[in-house]
Write a structure and sequence with these properties.
The complex is a heterodimer of chains A (185) and B (384). Chain A is mostly helical and 185 residues long. Chain A is built from six helices and no strands. Chain A has two domains: 13-132, no CATH class; 142-183. Chain A has helices spanning 13-16, 89-98, 106-129, 136-139, 142-148, 150-183. Chain B has helices at residues 37-43, 92-95, 151-156, 160-170, 186-197, 210-219, 233-240, 261-269, 278-286, 308-314, 325-337, 356-364, 378-383; strands spanning 2-5, 8-10, 26-34, 60-67, 79-82, 85-86, 114-115, 132-135, 143-144, 178-182, 202-207, 223-226, 246-251, 287-295, 317-320, 349-352, 373-376. Chain B is 29% helix and 21% strand. The chains are: A mainly alpha (185), B alpha/beta (384).
Amino acid sequence: MEDKNIASVKPFEKERENLADNYKHINGWGIDADPENEPTYPMKTYTGDDHNRLEWERPPLQIQTVEILKSIEHPRLTAVYGTVAPPSGLSGMIRRFAFKYSESTYAHWLPLVFADRINVVEGIVDDLAHGHIPNIFAEKGWKAEWKYNRQEFVQNIAITIAVATAAIIIFSKSKKKKKKSLFSF
Amino acid sequence: MNYRGPFRVRADHNKPDPEILHPQDAIVRVTRSCICGSDLHIYHGLVPDTRVGTTFGHEFTGVVEQVGTGVQKLKVGDHVLVPFNIACGSCTFCKQELYGNCHESNPEATAVGGIFGYSHTAGGYDGGQAEYVRVPYADVGPTIIPEGMDLDDAVLLTDVVPTGYQAAEMGGIKKGDTVVVFGAGPIGIMAAKCAWLFGAARVIIIDHLEYRLEFARNYSQCEAYNFKSLGDPVVFMKKTTGGLGADVCIDAVGAEAAGDTMQTLLGRKMLMTGGSATALHWAINSVKKGGIISIVGVYGPINALVPIGNVVNKGLTIRANQASVKRLLPRMIEHVQAGRIDPKGIITHRIPLEEVSEAYHIFSAKRDNCIKPVLIPPKAEMRA
């Protein structure tokens, strides 16, 4: 749907030839214009189409079958788009909130990053709901780590286990102390 | 391939095959698919709106299996290389050959056009690290692989070669220039190689991984330095270029640059900026006054920390874009056929698609001297 707040601009093409006539009152207007001096040349073949704004002949429009979150900076849905993983669940709610804000704001991007993290948990829940227990070690490709970096890999696992064991021991000791102090009344 | 969260991907046999959703779509059976350095940004969870369940992959070749009613140039059975940009060919930007900036392929953001398998921020498309992939605007981007061209060469024409070439092209390199490339990943190595094609007199590449520097010395025939042993790389650059700085600096690193603790903390760990912009920071400070910075490294959409005051005070020109693959392809094919560029020379790993989790880990953790991994789907070797 067209955004009515975007000003309609007449196609520039028809006016281009006579454009200089509009600026006769400005001495020297356009005298140094040089298409070869377009700073993005040769990256861009300048045609002046920019001035036609949204007036190009659009491709056929994809029929919308899933929810698509559209940037509020876009005046209309693009002719094609991906339909993978439409917004759903809590992460979907957060994404819908994010898309109320422009791409120029943290209010757009930070909630999306947050939604991505929530989505990871949703993914695990979804796996379990479908009877699939995710093998996180395999998904992280640790088989390759075992193959190419075994010594450091084993060392890191040993350190992790040692730190975790120490933490559990310290935690359980402090819990016992608390219990004792409760009974000391 | 199915993304499950940062550092977690798996081969998924249950994902439904893609369908034609638009008259100008094609369905392509993938024959080769690379993992790009920029895929690591989404794999690491750095690009916002990367949704669980997505398939990555924007560098692929494949055989056309099905076409929509509006497709006229391609037919079933054509073996094509598919540019990573999804481009309509008719919007203002495509008409001016800015195929990386199409305005009809990504509803989720205006700053970037649609890209295969690169998050919903780039349009929410599934990518080519799969057996089959939906290819929109099939008459615009996909190009039939020239007869006799090696598939491994063809797949690198979808991104690496044109991106490296455009990095050099945007640098506006003049004969005799000194060009510094930050980053000795596949793109940096290719940019260094291509800098010579524009007449550079000296090409220097900077990284911190010795095996990559060694690879660059051989493949790109350039000087290569480890910034960890340089002290201050900016001072080194000034000294080695006669005191003024390089003529052209290319940032081929993007969001995950090492070398600066604060950038790493804010950009890579806390995700408070669009990535660690250390390479771009060094590029700005290493180039001469009035010099040119060319950026092809990928950053996230949030602000990045760069010394913009120095850009003003030094009168620098910054040129940046996603490569316009379709625009560059004819020239790239000429270079490959003439032997001036050897794309497959950067491939170090050929891995079955089934082992995608290991492939990502090897590339991400820089194991086994990995430069460029290519994934091969199970049906590809039998029928391609």
